[in-house]
Amino acid sequence: MKKYLIFFLLFLCINISYSYNFGYIKLNVTNPMYMKEFYIDKANYSYIFSFNHYGNINKSMKIEIYLNENLIYIIDDSNDGSGNYKKSVSLNVSKYLRNGKNILKIKGYLKKGNYSPYYVLSNAQISEPYTVPISNFMVFITLMILGIIVVFLYKP
Q1: Can you tell me the distance from the alpha carbon of 62 to that of 76, in angstroms, rounded to the nearest whole number?
Q2: Which of 9, 43, 82, 118 is the most exposed place for a label (fewest CB within 10 A)?
């Protein structure tokens, strides 16, 4: 009986989700574009493109993010993260993804001046949001009941 309870508890903690990780992407004057092909077996999920971003662009510069030639986000002077001030973004990109081959393209319109402009997207990934078949409250109640059962079944 204990084996089954432990197995059930472990089963509740399993996170089954797909994630395609692009990692750390840095754009600058000498490297103003990033392009990556990737493949997804698209199912009926919501796909989220999330990343942190920061850099030192000014009002005449911008970063454009495309997914399969569709413009999905623009970073300019009004919403950039600078220095230690990183911003996080999460976008639902389900309608832009295709089953099979996809292309993520990031274009930087950077101008060299008195400094060397750069922009970074870190922890960039496309993932399925984690969902469980039952609510968090029901998971909590189930764990409490199983904990009580284990305590009563434990015989020192």
Answers
A1: 4
A2: 43
What is the residue whose two structure tokens read 């662009």? Answer: 57
How do residues 76-127 score in pLDDT, each as one tens digit? 877 666 656 778 899 999 999 998 999 999 999 998 877 888 899 999 999 8
**Residue of 89, 72, 92, 73 whose CA lies nearest to 81:** 89
Q: What is the dihedral of CA 129, 41, 99, 132, to 10 degrees?
A: -20
3-state SS, residue 55: strand
Q: Which residue has 């999330």 as its token pair?
A: 50
Q: What are the tens digits of pLDDT across the range 1-59?
A: 566 656 665 665 555 556 789 999 999 999 999 999 999 887 777 899 999 998 888 88
